Amino acid sequence: MITDAIGCVTSGVYCEGDVAELLAAEGRDLEELLSAAREVRDRRFGNRVFTYGFAYFSTHCRNDCPFCYYRRSNTSVQRYRKDPEDVVALAGSLEDSGVDLIDMTMGEDPVMRDDGFGRFLSLVSRVRDAVGIGIMASPGTVPRELMVPLREAGADWLACYQETYDRTLFGRVRGSQDFDIRRDQKTWAHAAGLLAEDGIMVGIGESTEGRARSIVDMGLTGCDQMRAMAFVPQTGTPMFACDPGREVDEIRAIAVMRLLCPDRLIPASLDVDGIAGLPCRLNAGANVVTSIVPSEGDLAGVAQHELDIANGNRSAEHVMSVLGDLGFEPANAGEYRRWMDSRREALR
Ligand code: SF4
Predict the structure, then answer these.
(1) Ligand 1 binding pocket includes 65 (Cβ within 6 Å)
(2) Cβ-proximal residues to 245 (8 Å cutoff; 6+ apart), any chain
(3) Is the Cβ atom of 141 under 6 angstroms away from ligand 1?
(4) Residue ranges per domain, the chain?
(5) How many separate helices (H) and strands (E) can be counted in the chain?
(6) Is 163 close to ligand 1, i.e. is its CB under 6 Å away?
(7) Which of the listed residues 58, 61, 64 should we mutate to test ligand 1's pocket, taking the one with most ligand atoms within 8 A of CB?
(8) Mutate which of 108, 109, 185 for ligand 1 pocket (most atoms within 8 A of beta carbon)
(9) Quick check: CB of 61 below 6 Å from ligand 1?
C-alpha cells in the first residue's frame, strides 16, 4: 500500500525500499503521493512561491560531461561570455521584475577561474552592490578556500549539482571529475555561511532504486535546496541518441523530495518543459520557480537553451501571471531574505 510508504517517509522512519516504491507510483497511488506532497508544501510555505531569475553569463566550459550541450568538445555551440556591465544591468532588470534571486551561472570557464577566480568574485560583488535580491553562485566546482571570499563578495548560495550519487554512474556522466570534491561543495559552502543547492538528473541510466538512493543521499548532505530535472538529450553530445528522461519520473522525484525534506526549497524548473511544465511541478510540491529568463537579454537556458525564451514565456511577468492563475502568490524579496536568514541561523 502506498499509504504505508508515504507514512514511513513522512515520519522519517523509512528504508530505501519505501522511497523506491513512491518513485514507481502509478494511477491512484501517484495521485495520493502528489496530494501528500502538496499538503506538506502548503503546511510549510502556504501558497507563496519564490522566483529565481537565471543569468547564464558564460557558456564556456573546460569539462566534457557527455550529457551537456555546453561540453568542451561540442563545436556546434555558439558560446558567449557576457560583459560585467551587461550582467549588472540584467540583475537590475530582474530585481525590477520582482524575482527574489539572481542565479549567476557559468560553465567551468577557464577565463573566469584564472587569477584565483578574481573575475568571478568581482562580478558577484558588482551585482551585490547593484541589487538587493538574493544571489546564487553556480560556477561549477570551486576550491574549498574560495567559499569564504564568495560569501564576502555577496553570494548567498552556492549551487553545485551532483546529478547522481551512484559513483559508477557519476563516472559515466561526469567523466574524470572527482565525486567527493563535487559532493563536498555543499559542506564547504555551509562552513562559510553560504546556503547550498544540490540536484540530480532523472533518466540518465539509473534504476528506480538507484534514484531512490541518490535522493536520500542528496537529502543527507543537508543542502537547503534540492532539485530533480529530467534528462534532455542534446545535439552534438555523446548522449544525444539516449532516451530522454520522463516528465513523470521528475514529478515523482519532486514529490518524494518534498516528503523526505519538508523544510527545503524544491524548484519547478522551466528548463525542461518550459512554462507548460510549471503546473505539474507545482502540483508535486515544488515551491520555487527557477530558470526565469528575460526575452531581451540574449541569454541561453541550459537543458533547453531556447525553449520559451524569445516568446517571453519564461519572463518574470509571464511566470507571475501564470502563478496567479494557478492560485499561488509570488513571494517578495523581503520574505525570501527572511527565509534565507532563518535557514542560515538554523545552520549555526
Ligand atoms: S554540465 Fe557543467 S561542468 Fe559539465 S560540461 Fe556542462 S557546463 Fe561543463
Answers:
(1) yes
(2) 201, 202, 203, 204, 229, 230, 231, 232
(3) no
(4) 2-347
(5) 13, 9
(6) no
(7) 61
(8) 108
(9) yes
Quote the ligand 1 centre to 60 CA distance (angstroms).
9
Three-state secondary structure string covering 71-115: CCCCCCCCCCECCHHHHHHHHHHHHHHCCCEEEEEECCCHHHHHH
Residue 71 Cβ < 6 Å to ligand 1: yes
For ligand 1, say whether the CB of 68 is within 6 Å of any of its atoms. Answer: yes
**Distance (Å) of CA 231 to CA 15, 32, 271:** 26, 25, 11
246-282: pLDDT as tens digits: 999 999 999 999 999 999 999 999 999 999 999 999 9
| Amino acid at site 9 | V
Write the class of the CATH domain 2-347: alpha beta
- The pLDDT tens digits along the chain (348 residues) read 799 999 999 999 999 999 999 999 999 999 999 999 999 999 999 999 999 999 999 999 999 999 999 999 999 999 999 999 999 999 999 999 999 999 999 999 999 999 999 999 999 999 999 999 999 999 999 999 999 999 999 999 999 999 999 999 999 999 999 999 999 999 999 999 999 999 999 999 999 999 999 999 999 999 999 999 999 999 999 999 999 999 999 999 999 999 999 999 999 999 999 999 999 999 999 999 999 998 887 887 787 778 888 899 999 999 999 999 999 999 999 999 999 999 999 887
User: The pTM is what?
Assistant: 0.96
> Which residue has the least CA distance to atom 4 on ligand 1?
65
Q: How many Å apart are CA 316 and CA 78, to the nearest integer? A: 25
What is the rounded distance in angstroms from the CA atom of residue 302 to the CA atom of residue 151? Answer: 25
List Cβ neighbours of 180 (8 Å cut-off, separation of 6 or more): none
User: Are 292 and 56 in contact, with CB atoms under 8 Å apart?
Assistant: no
* pLDDT (tens digit per residue) in 130-154: 999 999 999 999 999 999 999 999 9
In degrees rounded to 5, what are phi and psi of residue 295?
A: -75, -20
Q: Atom 2 in ligand 1: which residue has the minimum CA distance?
A: 107
The residue whose C-alpha atom lies closest to atom 5 belonging to ligand 1 is 71
